[in-house]
Design goal:
With 393 residues, this protein is of the alpha/beta class. It has 14 helices and twelve strands. Helix 2 packs across helix 10.
C-alpha cells in the first residue's frame, strides 16, 4: 500500500464534488435527481462565446501560453473592470489563472507564512480554510450571524485584528449564505488593512449575482494596490465552470511573484479558452440581464417555499445563488442525528441533493443545509415538495 504524505493530508476536499459524484451515480441508475448541490450555473456559456473558442482552436491557439495569461485576456480583463467600476487597473496588474480556485491557492501560498494569523468568515467556501491549514497559518474565524443578515462587518473584523494578523479573506456575495457587504464596511476595512499592514484576499466571483443594488468592489477604494488581492473568474457569470478560467488583480510586484507558482503548478491557463474569454468580455454582459432576473425569481421562490416549512428559519440571500436554511428544529423533531443524516436521507430517499451546512462550517453549519438555486423554477417547486413530503412521512 502506498503511504500518502503528511502535507497532503492537511488539505480538505470540497464536499460539493462528493455529492456531485453521488448524484451522478444515482442519475445513472435512472433516479430522477433534483440537484441543489454543486454551485454551478444551469445555463451554458452564450453561443457566441462557444463559437469564439472553436475559432481560437481552429486558428492554432492550442499550445502553451504565458504563465500569467495571454496578453489579450489580461488587457480585456483590465478594460472590463475599469469600465465596470470606473477604476484604472493596468494589464500588468492582472493575472489569469486556472480558475478562481487556483487564484486563491497561489495567492495564499505567495502571501502567507506558517504561524501567520488569517481571518476567515464562518461559514465560508471551504477552500480558504483548507489552504490556510495546508500552509500552517493560524486561522481566526469571523462568525457570521443570521441576526445580522450574515454580513461581514467592519466592527466585527476590527475586534479580531491583532499585530500578528497577516490576511483577511472576504467573499461577497458570500457562499454559502448569500450576504453582501456594505460599501462603508469595505472602505473602512481597506483603510484598516493599510494602517495595520495586512492583506485582503477579496473573492468577488459572484459580483454579478446581486439582486438589490450594485456590487461595491474593493478595487473602488483608494489603497487597493497596497492591500488588496482581488479574485474573480468566468465560472459563475459566464457559466464556464469547466473552462477553468479565473483572474487576480493586485499590484504588479505581487502579480509577477505569482508567475513562478502558477508555472510550477499548471504552466498556463488553457490558451484557446483565454482567447474566447477575451472576446466575451469585449462583447459585454447585455445577455446576462435576463439571467439575473431569472435568478432573482428563483431566489424569491425558494426563499418563500423554504420559509413556508414550519420549523425552518431562513435568511433571504442578497446575492450569489445559495440559500442556507436552518433545519435544527426539524432535525430534532424527526429524531435525526444531524444535518448530514438529513442531507443523506433526502438524497437516497427522495433524489434531492442538498449539502450539509457543516461542509462550510464546523459550528455555524450545524443544523443547516445549503441549497444552490441554479435550477429551473419548476424543479425548485418539485424539489421542495419532495422535501415536504419526506418531512411529513
Ligand atoms: C466563493 C467561491 N470562490 C471560488 C470558487 C471557484 O471558482 P472557479 O470555478 O473559478 O475555480 C467558487 C466555486 O464554487 C466559489 O463559490
Amino acid at each position: 500500500m502506498l503511504k500518502t504524505s503528511h502535507i497532503s493530508s492537511k488539505l480538505g476536499a470540497e464536499e460539493s464534488f462528493v455529492y456531485l459524484a453521488r448524484s451522478l451515480e444515482l442519475k445513472k441508475k435512472g433516479v430522477d435527481v433534483i440537484s441543489f448541490g454543486i454551485g454551478q450555473p444551469d445555463f451554458q456559456p452564450p453561443p457566441h462565446v462557444i463559437e469564439y473558442a472553436k475559432q481560437a482552436m481552429d486558428s492554432g491557439f492550442n499550445g502553451y501560453g504565458p504563465s500569467l495569461g495571454m496578453p489579450e485576456l489580461r488587457e480585456a480583463v483590465s478594460d472590463f473592470i475599469n469600465e465596470e467600476y470606473g477604476v484604472d487597473v493596468k494589464p500588468e496588474e492582472v493575472a489569469i489563472t486556472a480558475g478562481a480556485k487556483a487564484a486563491i491557492f497561489i495567492g495564499m501560498l505567495a502571501l502567507l507564512e506558517p504561524g501567520d494569523e488569517v481571518i476567515i468568515p464562518d461559514p465560508a467556501y471551504p477552500l480558504y480554510e483548507s489552504v490556510a491549514r495546508f500552509i500552517g497559518a493560524n486561522i481566526i474565524f469571523l462568525r457570521l450571524h443570521r441576526g445580522n443578515n450574515y454580513k461581514i462587518r467592519y466592527e466585527d473584523i476590527e475586534r479580531l485584528v491583532t499585530n500578528r494578523t497577516r490576511m483577511i479573506v472576504l467573499n461577497y456575495p458570500e457562499n454559502p449564505v448569500g450576504s453582501t457587504m456594505d460599501q462603508r464596511d469595505v472602505e473602512a476595512l481597506v483603510d484598516l488593512a493599510y494602517k495595520k499592514n495586512f492583506v485582503i484576499v477579496s473573492d468577488e466571483i459572484y459580483d454579478h449575482f446581486v439582486y438589490e443594488g450594485k456590487h461595491f468592489s474593493t478595487l473602488q477604494t483608494p489603497y487597493w494596490r497596497d492591500v488588496v488581492y482581488y479574485v474573480n473568474g468566468f465560472s459563475k457569470t459566464f457559466g464556464m465552470t469547466g473552462w477553468r478560467l479565473g483572474y487576480v488583480v493586485a499590484n504588479r510586484d505581487l502579480i509577477s511573484k505569482l508567475s513562478v507558482i502558477a508555472n510550477n503548478m499548471y504552466s498556463c491557463p488553457v490558451t484557446f479558452a483565454q482567447i474566447a474569454a477575451a472576446k466575451a468580455l469585449q462583447d459585454g454582459l447585455e445577455w446576462f440581464k435576463p439571467i439575473l432576473n431569472q435568478y432573482r425569481k428563483r431566489r424569491d421562490l425558494i426563499h418563500r417555499h423554504l420559509g413556508s416549512i414550519k420549523g425552518v428559519h431562513v435568511f433571504k440571500p442578497e446575492g450569489a445563488f445559495y440559500i442556507f436554511p436552518d433545519f435544527t428544529e426539524i432535525i430534532k423533531a424527526k429524531g435525526l442525528k444531524d444535518e448530514r443524516e438529513l442531507a443523506d436521507r433526502l438524497l437516497e430517499e427522495k433524489g434531492v441533493v442538498v449539502l450539509p451546512g457543516t461542509a462550510f462550517s464546523k459550528d455555524a453549519g450545524k443544523g443547516h443545509l445549503r441549497f444552490a438555486f441554479a435550477v429551473r423554477e419548476e424543479d425548485i417547486e418539485k424539489g421542495i415538495e419532495r422535501i415536504k413530503s419526506w418531512l411529513e412521512s
